[in-house]
Amino acid sequence: MKKNVSAPAQFNQGNFLDTPQLASGITRFWFIRHALVEQNARMNLYGTLDVPLCPDTLIAQRPMYEALAARLPREAHWLVTPLSRTRKTAEAIWDAGYGPAHADVEPGFIEQNLGDWQGMPHSDVTAYLYMPPHPFWPVSATECPPDGESMVEVTARAGRALDRLSHQYAGQNIIAVSHGGAIRAALSHALSVHIETALHFSIQNLSVTILERLDEGWRVVTVNELPGI
């Protein structure tokens, strides 16, 4: 006797990504790490210090801004953090062909607050650490600088922001210009992995990381996608 099998009921085929085109009507976060900061600032731990962008790189990387302007969805809610380097990055993308837009400030996606260690040269920080630094981050994921926060705490606040915004903008695109640490924290939340593991992701300046919120859970579409490359 032939068994009657209903394919749609048996296979979850609708959530496969089989084409380059991303489906509409999905809650989708487009994370962009801000542009490269000024050279002197890069010599120190800057965390949540409001350091300026590198003016020479803003000019030299104009093609990358143009590629971002072409890549990003037009129907989207823009978010920046309280730090000017994210807003300046967003403005550079708008000026490169995206067109005028409005960005709301979202503190949940700000960089790790390194407390008393902010402004300290990288080479001097090791003397103050309680545990070995992460191989791809200045401090261990569980290290909490005095008057600062650990990356575990960053993951918690970034995760709360993701969950809140995914409900607020359900079925829509959200473009969030953020920071390397916060984007790794978002990946930690989406993948349900410890931030110590997520810090192994490379998140370069101006790269795109796309997360989707589906009924089944979070899906990572791309990580560290460099525009125009």
UniProtKB/TrEMBL annotation:
Q: Cite the Gene3D superfamilies for this sequence.
A: Phosphoglycerate mutase-like (3.40.50.1240)
Q: What is this protein called?
A: Histidine phosphatase family protein
Q: Which organism is it from?
A: Acetobacter thailandicus
